[in-house]
Design brief:
13% strand, Heat Shock Protein 90, 56% helix, alpha+beta
Length: 422
């Protein structure tokens, strides 16, 4: 029985996979065959009934096989002896015999069309109608599946492919929206520290320049630094306008030394120290306290040359400073270390704030993450994207980022940069 069931299932599958035109032809052939059998059966019944009526009068009834007309052979005069009811019945049988093939052909065609629709068109049409209705409701969380390889199956497959492409396009659109949102947030976030630096220098000039307490040399130096920060803001604005995603940023490495980096850091910290009430200290690696995840390295001389994208490095520093200043109580420490053997540069930023929440420390680098832990009085709104930006930039430099709580409290962040040739 299993073999028979398997063969029946194979035959059913073959019939189901027939193309629509051949399936329609098969339905019509079966209908016409059924019409022929029914027509022949009805005509035979009519002839037999005519014989029953006329045989007592010596009349032989036969049917012409081509036209289907009934002829009466014998004494036609006997017809006049039939009662009126028998004559009416004979005329009815004659009409029924002649009309049966045409009536059955029409009924067979209608039945074939109905059965063809129910067997081959109704289910795929319902599937497609449901899919169109779901898409009309802007719901794409469905699947169109029709188990057949005929034209309707191919149509359902094409519709499903179109649905998947619409889903992919929508996901791509959302991804672009999220990328643009991230770019806007990064732009707004990264503007804060340079603007704070410029505000610090402006306040210094406003406070001390009228009193003549700033020398001409110092004044020129401050104006030069302000000009450099404005140029950097201009370059950063141009970069943000040209890229579609923060992931598209590529490092443009130049040769630089540790001494030059400390000079650039001091330019930033000097203005931030003047603008705020939190002290920012920068020092050599040998003065770094014992922090978790700290690398054990042999320090390079300040004149050691390595390759680094200075602008992106400063962007990481400013993001870390922005976070540290938001939570610090009174002090932020910045330290650099360079490992010549691996060509890795390490940036450490430590504050004396409350540190990271142990329950959230694994999530702090996710985009738009806003932790619950915040120092008293620090109510400044932030985007929750600073550490994520640092992670992306460090990754672009072949490095990474680690966060932890310092041994003596406060948050500790270390960022590594690969400073070899790309």
């Amino acid at each position: 029985m299993d073999w028979i069931d398997e063969k029946i299932e194979q035959i059913r599958k073959r019939i189901q996979n027939l193309s629509v035109k051949w399936a329609l032809a098969a339905y019509l052939l079966l209908a016409f065959f059924a019409v022929f059998l029914c027509s022949w059966f009805i005509q035979e019944i009519c002839i037999n009934r005519c014989n029953e009526i006329l045989s007592p009068y010596g009349v032989d009834v036969y049917r012409e096989r081509i036209s289907g007309n009934i002829y009466y052979a014998g004494a036609e005069a006997a017809m006049y002896f039939l009662p009126e009811g028998k004559r009416t019945e004979l005329r009815f049988l004659q009409i029924l015999s002649n009309a049966t093939p045409w009536i059955l052909v029409g009924c067979g065609a209608v039945c074939a069309a109905v059965l063809f629709y129910r067997g081959r068109l109704r289910r795929p049409c319902e599937i497609l109608e449901k899919g169109v209705a779901e898409m009309g409701r802007k719901n794409l969380d469905f699947e169109i599946y029709y188990d057949s390889r005929d034209e309707m199956g191919q149509l359902c497959q094409t519709f499903e492919q179109m649905r998947r492409e619409v889903v992919a396009d929508r996901e791509e659109l959302w991804r672009r929206i999220e990328d643009q949102k991230e770019i806007n947030a990064a732009f707004a976030h990264d503007m804060r520290t340079p603007l704070t630096v410029l505000r610090g220098y402006t306040e210094l000039l406003y406070r001390y320049a009228p009193e003549g307490r700033i020398s001409e040399e110092k004044l020129i130096s401050m104006l030069k630094l302000m000009s450099e920060h404005l140029k950097r803001l201009e370059d950063y604005t141009k970069t943000m306008r040209q890229i579609r995603s923060f992931e598209e940023i590529e490092p443009q490495k130049i040769k630089i030394t540790l001494e030059q980096l400390y000079f650039r850091i001091s330019e930033i910290t000097e203005a931030l120290n003047e603008a705020g009430d939190i002290q920012i200290l920068s020092g050599e690696g040998e003065n770094l306290p014992e922090y978790p995840n700290r690398k054990s390295v042999s320090h390079a001389a300040d004149k050691e040359v390595f390759c680094l994208d200075e602008s992106l490095f400063l962007e990481v520093l400013e993001n870390l400073l922005s976070n540290a200043l938001r939570y610090a109580e009174s002090r932020v420490d910045i330290t650099l270390e360079y490992e010549k053997e691996s060509s890795m540069l390490f940036l450490y930023v430590h504050d004396d704030g409350p540190g990271f929440d142990e329950r959230e420390i694994k999530s702090v680098m996710e985009p738009y993450f806003r932790g619950a832990g915040q120092a008293a009085g620090k109510t400044e709104e932030h985007f929750g994207i600073g550490l994520h930006i640092c992670q992306v930039i460090a990754g672009k430099h072949g490095g990474g980022i680690n966060v932890a709580n310092g041994m003596d409290g406060g948050a500790f962040v270390s960022v590594s940069f690969f400073c070899g040739k790309s």
